[in-house]
Amino acid sequence: MAKKKTNLIRMISEAGTGTFYVTKTGSKKEKLKLKKYDKKVRKHVVFKEHKIK
Length: 53
Description:
A 4-stranded antiparallel β-sheet has the order 2-1-4-3, with no helix packed on it. A hairpin with a 4-residue loop joins strand 3 (33-38) and strand 4. The chain has one domain (6-50): CATH 2.20.28.120. It is elongated, with a radius of gyration of 12 Å. It contains no helices and 4 strands. It is mainly β. 0% of the residues lie in helices and 55% in strands. The protein has strands spanning 6-13, 20-26, 33-38, 43-50.
């Protein structure tokens, strides 16, 4: 059986609203930070990578 090359991660809003996106990433060392739209504050904010529990 082949090993998975992508991991599912959860991107959580830094605005503290609890909004999150689930996305796939390749195997890498550094944490991902993206600027995405947060519906609750109606602005683009930074989302940080966290593990899915």
